[in-house]
Batch of 2 targets.
Target 1
Amino acid sequence: MILYFTATGNSLYVAKKLESNLISIPQLLKNDNHIFEEEKIGLVFPCFHSGVPKIVEDFIERSEFKTQYLYAVITFGAFSGGSINHLIDIAKRNNLKFSYINELLMVDNYLPMFDVKKEIEKVPQKRIEESIQLIVEDLKNMRIYIKKSNKILNFMRSLMDKFYDRNFERKFTINNQCILCGICSKVCPVGNISMKQKPEYSNNCQHCLSCIHNCPTKAINLINQKTTDRYINEHINTKEIIKSNNIL
Ligand SMILES: Cc1cc2nc3c(=O)[nH]c(=O)nc-3n(C[C@H](O)[C@H](O)[C@H](O)COP(=O)(O)O)c2cc1C
């Protein structure tokens, strides 16, 4: 069983390669508490701001895992910083012990820092398929392994946490290419966007950028984006992201 969160499909693609029984974390969060029981239970999700996305942290806090092999795979685009240590801290707080934590370098979808086209050009060097295959083997053998990340990275994560923009949604603009299709509200994992005269954001944005990357007319922009190009994992489509994230 894999419990996953995805905004632009990287983590869903990886989850699909690892397991067939996939359950979306945003869908699970519609209910209060969860108990999962299986021989192996995995979490697959992206690194956000050098750490674990808030939605995944909330989910772990509200869940109980009865398993002999709890594992996690964190997808990231450039520098995963203290995300593994962050996950270990969350686990400790919740009396959980991971048997395996690894990370996987993929395309970086973070528009304030990266240009999508340049990121896609880097794909061959990132050896994504080879890395996935190694993780598949590890999990088949129930390997005990926690990828090392050092304390300095952890410190950096805590700094980033202090400085990252908490009013992200104020940086979104909607232009007149908006056709009111509602896809942005359906891919939002927390139902933070309502469709009025145009999409309107409430104040629970998770910063995942799913609304921006999945908008079919590129009507949603970030004032500090590096490019107007958008990214969805080439093996995943918007319908699958809607199925994962639509909680309305
Ligand atoms: C808000 C946000 C913060 C991110 N922070 C980092 C980061 O600190 N380090 C990194 O390497 N990638 C970062 N990324 C890139 C994603 O982790 C990466 O592209 C991931 O594979 C996306 O997974 P998904 O397609 O399943 O959403 C960030 C992306 C977003 C949207």
Note: The chain has eleven helices and twelve strands.
Target 2
Amino acid sequence: MDDRVDAFLAALDYPMFVVTAACPDTGEPAGCLVGFVTQCSIEPVRLLVCLSKANHTYRIACRARLLAVHSLGPEEADLAELFGTRSGDRVDKFARCAWRSGPDGVPLLDRCGYRLIGRVLERLELGDHDGFLLEPVHAQEAGPNRPLLMFSAVRDLPAGHPA
Ligand SMILES: Cc1cc2nc3c(=O)[nH]c(=O)nc-3n(C[C@H](O)[C@H](O)[C@H](O)COP(=O)(O)O)c2cc1C
């Protein structure tokens, strides 16, 4: 049964994102590579972003009012590596990429214009990840047929934190 579950999950593919947040007190930026992102309601529009409780980003996101969800394309594979294989517990990822502060200080990555800023409505206990239920408050329009960086292209990256 476990093997079949593993095989089922291994066959899935989905787009990758960098999710960022800022500490409301210090402005400290945080962000990590996330594959567990999905729209979970049509009306009202809602997004669910799942963050591992082990991550530095999780601890900051728990205190933040807003999260920024940056869609990645194949040309942003280097950002996927930076945000997916390094932890803010040990490395300042934001010293290694171009970004600016958005509303509430939420970090916006310069190279990822296709992004959505969401207000955290609720945090849901889901297992070793928590779900952050987002109400979109701002979205950048995406071009047509924009290529996406998929999980299958980055699945071999070693995660910066074990889940
Ligand atoms: C392919 C891939 C997918 C990942 N998906 C998620 C995810 O959905 N949620 C999550 O919290 N972390 C995910 N991670 C792990 C974090 O991006 C990684 O542990 C990161 O280094 C944590 O950084 P932080 O400690 O600065 O938050 C993924 C990593 C990789 C390589």
Note: Residues 30, 32-36, 50-52, 55-57, 84-89, 129, 151, 154-155, 157, 159-161 surround flavin mononucleotide (CB under 6 Å).
